[in-house]
Amino acid sequence: MKVQLTPDQKAFVRQAIESGRLRREEDAVKEALLLWEERERAEILAAVEEAETSLARGEGRIITQESMHELAEDVKRRGRTRLAAEQ
Description:
Elements: H1 7-18, H2 25-56, H3 65-86
């Protein structure tokens, strides 16, 4: 995989290597990916916590096989109605 950095990014990485913070350019990419992964995980956990809090307040709905079937049937019914209206 090739990664193209901007001149500012290259200078930033070079400075980190020269200061001893990083050993190689690859280390900068690995660290950036680790930080990105941590942020993504934190966002997912926050979304799950928000959903659980919402459910605790009585908001939202519990998803079951039956509710998914009902939702699918409702979507089909609305789609057919719209299609018939357009024809």
